[in-house]
Specification:
The complex is a heterodimer of chains A (about 475) and B (about 475). With about 475 residues, chain A is α/β, with parallel strands linked by helices. Chain A has 11 helices and 21 strands. Chain B is of the alpha/beta class. In chain B, strand 14 and strand 15 form a beta hairpin.
């Protein structure tokens, strides 16, 4: 397979304090130049070569860089228009700074001996938007969209679910891509995602990186039930257990979606659910209108896992007098490997105190510390930033550490144990190769964001989460 | 060529740059001269200086060729004319006679009314009074839209103009028809064998025509507040696009053959009855909002607009063409200002296949076939069809096959006005509207205007930077369709 190795004749454009109309003009000029580049008299101009518009919305510099890198990686094989918007709505002055880069791609054949000039090209537009304009994303981006190809919105942080800004933005999109592992207020945002999905227009699809990361689990479970002689086991499941890392509602999302996937596929109805201390969850589903299936989550401590990640899944049941047990566990002794591209590991503000218990605890502790320090130093304080009397200052927007729920190394070794009846335990070990964000994104976009299995699983997962 | 209103916006932005570019392409006839006529008191040199500035700013070809520009400027003359004073027209006639003798143009004259519609009557009457409508050579008049403000006024204007000029010498200009991509609609349909057989109600589900602008009314408040989007865009541009899309093949690309077919289509449009207005039309007006990343004010805050104005800046209409070819196929038109972007397109949506061979699940991402004729910008044609997603099993998705005007020919498309001015000088009215065409278009518009004056349906507000009021989407949803996002 040919592989992109370098770029020639890159077109670059930068503008500060400009309008979107100027960006559009620059893009048009780029395209006209591209159509005629390296043409001889007899050549036909290069046609438009664009398979999608990918709009990445970033809130921080790290997110912006991540988006740019992933867009470039994807564009090598999928010529596209990528628009990276760094939204800085909280900055007062309203300005747009923009840059466009459009490097032509040159491919080398597999032997490395020759090069293949490729008409494939991508355009990467980066917009830094400050002030109120940033809250009108649709108006910013719509004029730039390529007509006739799908538009995907990739929101790197937490989309403002329920806001008019998001509703308007989704009007111009064919799919919204999020990473629920990156949500600042995971529980509320997860509910927001489900609600947005339920109310979205018909054309709009939804995709979640977290869902793609569940693929190995889903595949392993599906493989167990795939042989014809095990299909009947599907209506014999009576117990599912999931081990995951972390406590708090936000960390239960992957487990809930996985259960949602099974429950929605098999038509189970949630009867009751409860969450206890230490991350324990207990739920009951009604299957086939009469049978009860018990579901339990438990929080475990395991090195190498980030919060929310699933460590093990156990499915038990019996059918036609035969008992079965499927146990899938991640390899127990993988060491923690931090990676550089994990995004912001910095203090970040939350708009309000969140549902994230650990985060809240830290926030409250910091607030108490702040009060205590202010009280102790009240005599030497002339004023406080809040204008409160000395010793009374309480930070209104507590600063907390946003926890990372993405594992930089998402490769895994899954150990599957299968017990059916009296037969010996079958053991199966599989190594799941790591996939970076670009690969996951391509996987999600390959379905056009219209993955009805995901939206069904999301809805069922949210139902469970709400019941807790 | 006499340009009435030569110091105005249209002349500076479009006409003079278009004539300069025709000059650059050596397409102007020998001895050609332009006489600017307007109320401003200018000398020839002052007019030339002003023209040079406009051409440098607005010419499509940049940088301006100084030698060509100088030659072109030497062709420009100016006469101060008050349209109410016959003596000024006598002065104009003398100037034209002078130029006739000096430049040997055989008495050929084109009078271009780049003036507000209210002046058309006075100009034609004065031209007749001083005998400038007849004599040796040809005498043609070019009239800009809007041609009348309703059927009655259009008929009156036709009557006045036809009293002075023969219909063959009247060139009613709708600059959309001069656009290459609009002319290409006919080429697309009638120069190919693969599209015309499916161009009918048996294969086509619906047609959408969108004419959106991101700009507001700029400094045209006085005119626009009286006109509105229905008169400003739908009566002329949009209905012309509809006619070109729906007409039968003319026997030749010849003025009357083409215009006869367009008139037939316009006549076949089912009149919107008083009862149907509320469900077949939507009118909206932009409120303040965000366009292209900038905050813009609402229509009522614009200069020269009445505080409580009910003028529509957005219109959506559902029309039916009652003929054999189009029976039952809805034509949806939407036009508006302060929309997210400037785009004009015609979208032909085809029916779904009669049977889903691959099943509903496989085809859930598959949209019906569609052809999009993009008039502006990114002029071109896009064909949407289904393809298998590369993977195991069958999963279908829509993909597009594109033709882009700008990159498919190694020549730049001329400006609409270049083509139209040249056609007028050549005497080819194919791309101009005929009197009966204009009047028929008004018969479609008048009943809607009448109902709107009674407040049916109510005016809906929409934030600037959006695709119009929610009612426009409901107009489509009511019939199980949705607007294409350009």
């Amino acid at each position: 397979m040919a592989q992109a190795v370098n770029t020639l004749g890159a077109l670059e454009w930068n503008g500060r304090g400009i309008t979107i109309a100027q960006v559009l003009n620059a893009l048009t000029e780029f395209r006209q130049r591209f159509a005629r580049v390296q043409l001889t008299e007899d050549d036909h101009p290069h046609p438009r070569n664009c398979v999608m518009t990918l709009v990445a919305v970033a809130a921080t510099e790290a997110e912006e860089k991540l988006a740019q890198t992933q867009c470039r990686t994807i564009a090598v094989h999928h010529p596209s228009l990528a628009i990276v918007v760094r939204d800085q709505a909280d900055v007062k002055e309203g300005l747009i700074d923009a840059s466009i880069s459009a490097p032509p791609t040159v491919l080398v054949d597999e032997s490395g001996a020759g090069t293949i000039p490729s008409p494939a090209r991508y355009e990467l537009v980066t917009l830094h938007v400050r002030g109120a304009a940033a809250t009108h994303l649709a108006g910013l981006v719509d004029p730039l969209l390529v007509s006739g190809v799908p538009t995907y919105i990739w929101w790197l942080g937490t989309p403002p679910f329920g806001s008019k800004e998001l509703r308007d933005t989704l009007q111009i999109a064919d799919a919204l891509v999020v990473d629920s592992a990156r949500f600042a207020r995971p529980y509320h945002s997860f509910l927001g995602l489900a609600e947005t999905s339920a109310r979205a227009h018909r054309r709009l699809g939804f995709a979640d990186f977290q869902w793609a990361r569940l693929d190995p689990w889903r595949e392993s479970i599906a493989q167990f039930f795939a042989p014809v002689n095990r299909r009947a086991f599907l209506s014999g499941i009576n117990e599912i257990g999931i081990d995951y890392r972390g406590v708090g509602r936000g960390n239960r999302i992957p487990s809930a979606v996985l259960i949602g996937w099974i429950a929605s596929a098999l038509g189970w109805k949630l009867q009751r659910a409860a969450g206890g201390d230490g991350g324990v969850v207990s739920a009951q589903f009604e299957a086939e209108g009469w049978r009860i299936v018990d579901v339990a989550f438990r929080s475990i401590v395991k090195p190498g896992l980030v919060e929310g990640e699933i460590s093990a899944v156990r499915i038990k049941g019996s059918s036609g007098g035969t008992t079965f047990r499927l146990s899938i566990a991640r390899s127990p002794d993988r060491s923690w490997r931090p990676a550089a591209d994990i995004g912001p590991s910095e203090f970040k503000e939350l708009h309000t105190a969140g549902d994230d218990e650990a985060g809240l605890e830290i926030a409250h502790r910091k607030a108490a510390q702040h009060r205590e320090m202010a009280f102790q130093n009240r005599d030497s304080l002339h004023h406080t930033a809040t204008g409160d009397p000395p010793g009374e200052s309480v930070p209104r927007r507590p600063t907390i550490f946003v926890r990372e729920r993405r594992n930089p190394d998402n490769s895994m070794v899954l150990l599957t144990l299968i017990d059916i009846g009296q037969a010996d335990t079958l053991r199966h070990v599989q190594r799941i190769e790591p996939m970076d964000d670009a690969a996951l994104l391509v996987q999600l976009l390959a379905l056009g964001g219209r993955d009805s299995v995901y939206t069904r699983s999301l809805a069922a997962g949210v139902e469970l989460m709400r019941a807790l | 060529m006499v340009i009435f209103g030569a110091t105005g916006d249209l002349s500076g932005r479009k006409l003079l740059p278009a004539l300069y570019n025709l000059s650059k392409q050596r397409l102007l006839p020998a001895g050609f001269a332009v006489v600017g006529a307007a109320i401003d008191d200018l000398t020839d040199d002052a007019f030339r200086k002003r023209a040079a500035e406009k051409i440098k700013t607005f010419s499509r070809t940049q940088p301006v060729d100084q030698q060509v520009l100088q030659t072109f400027l030497d062709m420009l003359f100016y006469v101060t004319v008050d349209f109410g004073k016959v003596d000024d027209f006598r002065k104009l006639a003398r100037k034209l006679d002078e130029l006739d003798s000096a430049r040997h143009v055989g008495g050929n004259r084109v009078f271009y009314c780049a003036t507000p519609p209210a002046t058309y009557e006075a100009i034609t009457e004065q031209l007749k009074a001083v005998g400038l409508n007849a004599g040796t050579g040809y005498h043609r008049i070019v009239i800009e839209k809007p041609f009348g403000s309703d059927l009655k006024s259009a008929r009156e204007l036709n009557h006045i103009v036809q009293r002075v000029f023969h219909e063959d010498s009247v060139f009613r200009i709708d600059h959309y028809l001069g656009k290459e991509t609009v002319q290409n609609v006919m080429a697309f349909r009638f120069a190919n064998t693969i599209f015309e057989p499916v161009w009918n109600c048996h294969f086509i589900d619906s047609v959408q025509i969108t004419a959106a602008e991101e700009i507001g009314i700029e400094n045209r408040g006085l005119y626009y507040d009286k006109a509105g989007a229905l008169r400003d865009i739908v009566q002329n541009h949009a209905l012309q696009l509809l006619a070109l899309t729906a007409m039968e093949p003319p026997i030749a690309f010849e003025a009357n053959a083409v215009r006869d077919e367009k008139v037939k289509v316009l006549k076949a449009i089912r009149p919107i009855t008083d009862e149907d207005v509320a469900k077949s039309t939507v009118r909206g007006q932009y409120a303040s909002g965000w366009v292209l990343g900038e905050h813009v004010k609402g229509y009522r805050e614009e200069a020269n607009v009445a505080a409580g104005s009910l003028t529509e800046t957005f219109v959506a209409v559902h029309l039916l063409v009652d003929n054999w070819r189009w029976a039952g196929v809805p034509f949806y038109i939407r036009a508006g200002k302060r929309m997210p972007k400037r785009v004009t397109e015609i979208r032909i949506q085809f029916n779904r296949p009669p049977h889903l061979t691959f099943g509903r699940q496989a085809a859930q991402e598959l949209d019906p076939n569609a052809i999009t004729l993009r008039i502006q910008p990114e002029e071109g044609i896009s064909l949407k069809f289904g393809a298998k997603v590369p993977a195991a099993g069958i999963r279908l998705r829509s993909v597009a096959m594109d033709f882009l005007y700008a990159s498919s020919f190694l020549v730049e498309a001329p400006e609409a006005y270049e083509r139209l001015l040249l056609d007028c000088m050549i005497g080819d009215p194919t791309l101009f509207t005929r009197a009966d065409e204009v009047e028929t278009a008004w018969t479609i518009i008048d009943p809607v205007e009448a109902a709107w004056r009674d407040g049916r349906p109510p005016l809906q507000m929409y934030p600037a930077g959006t695709w119009g009021p929610a009612a426009a989407a409901k107009l489509m949803e009511a019939e199980g369709r949705e607007w294409h996002r350009p």
